[in-house]
Design a protein that fits this description.
single chain; 6-stranded antiparallel β-sheet; 4-stranded antiparallel β-sheet; 14 strands; 18% strand; globular
Length: 295
Amino acid sequence: MTTVNTGALDAADEPTAEQVAATARSPRPSRAARLRRGIGMVAVIATGAGVLGLGTGVSPAAAETAPAHAGWDGSRYWFKNSQGQWRWTTHYSVYVARTGSGTKSPAKSSGGTKSSGGITQGWDGSRYWFRNSKGEWRWTTHYDIYLARTGGGSSGSGSSGSGSSGSSGGSVAADPDVETAVQYALAQLGKPFRTAGNGPDGYDCSGLVQQSFKRGGINLPRVANDQYEATTPITASQLRRGDLLFWSPDGTERGIQHVAIYLGDNQYVEAARPGTNIRISGISSGYYPAYMGRP
């Protein structure tokens, strides 16, 4: 018969006569000996911490999914330590120190003009990169400054459907704050739909819209029908890049259940439904938005 020790004292837990005798022969360590033992354990722990320490600003990745490659992923810098384990930091100086990288910007970007050094001009998910007159890499979070420095160059969306129609008058939104929101949404392409998701790993439809416009300094409510109430209603002929599209199964404003960001050329970026990733879709007659609004 197999017995399982549940922690309760029973016959299987009782000490033998030899164990009792051995315990009796073993004197209790003195207070000084116990103190020295405690100090020794602290020293061992401290030594281990020193061996395994990662330095300021670096965190272990044991509880997170390993990245596809080293470098910037839109929120942090990933690298492997000397033991081949993935680690990350939000401090670029720490990343450079750990990897010996000589570049001054993230190696990964969502699009733009690629340089010979692997750096990419344009939006990287958090800022705009460009070269100054001396050929040095610089960045800004302000799209109007980026345009001024690059002469209206690439917006760095790295995605199709970034054109414009209606009264937009160009490949970017007329309002730089709105364009910042659009670029943030495009930088989330491929991330999974997540119910009630606010990012950065996943979003639902209104979470993506709220977080995108937040990056442009525009505050919107969290729920799709409330987001419509916070916009200026427009018609299809007035649509321009950065406007919002709303779908309502029952055709009423309070029945709105889905929202997306219009890109131009009848395309929009959306977090559609569970089981899908953030994607670019096209407006169709079979799935036409019931309402449209301008934040």
